[in-house]
UPF0104 family protein
Amino acid sequence: MSLSVYPNAAAAPTGPSRPAARRWRDIALLAGLFAVVIAGLAGLAAATGWAETRDQLMRLTVAQVAILLALSLVNYLFRGARWHLFTQRLGLPTGPVQDIRHFLGGFAMSVTPGRVGELIRMRWLKRETGWSVERTAPLVLVDRASDLAAMALILALSVGLSAGGATLAIPVALLALAAAWIATRPRLLAGGVTWAYRLTGFLPRLMGRVRGAARSLAVFSTGPTLSLSILLGLIGWGAEGYAFHLLLGWMGADIGLWTAMGIFTFATLAGGLTGAPGGVGGAEAAMVALLSIEGVPLEVSIPATAVIRLTTLWFAIGIGLAVFPLAERCAARARG
């Protein structure tokens, strides 16, 4: 299994040793990131006392962990349905099972910086449909924009409806909404690319391709498509936020539904803004800090953070690693 991205399959390196080397490199990256997070949380747990942290973890039952994983699955499936909506609006000749396979398989690349590795979906689409990366690139942009819009709305609702209303979240929500709005304005994006090219004169072919991809976003800018995509995102991300609320309650730290959802959403966005692979490090630090502000002791916030990240980010990566080989085989058969 290779987790590298080659939009132009002909450009992929050849030779029997390269795939194996890339596979071990990717496995080492995943293991390294996981070890860094665990080491950081373990250090905090040691500072507060292992016994208290262990007791909190032991309070969770197998059924409760299963509920957390099920709510994460709700997120993945609803966002996968949104991906299918976008492919159909773009005119791709793909079916729902095929689109869900691409979407879930792309999670294997979630820990690449800025999640750029998820562009592997474009390679699969090229092999299975013959569409160039330039034609399918808008899918990535509109998918990210929809996530930003849904999470910004959840964050705004959380600020307004939570008991305290963390004003720190307001700028992040506004920034996410602004980024989502810009990312779905084809004329604005195309004009920005044109302005940048006229100013710098750099990379005319690349600028032309980016401008073409920006213009093709128009198919997603209709009211029904935008509304349905945001609704699917709200249900998906809301499910994981609700899982965090349940988890805190099971650990004896019920801070309220909207406060819990706001902290989860803010931490996820904050982790993404760091540009770190999967938001690792930044998301965990933000979550522990915000829970502490709400009066949640470290012996609860640390295991809660560890569990929710395992059942969301790392669960998604596990699903992606399981689906990735199937997606690769299907794409290889289509190409052959």
The chain has one domain: 18-184+221-335.
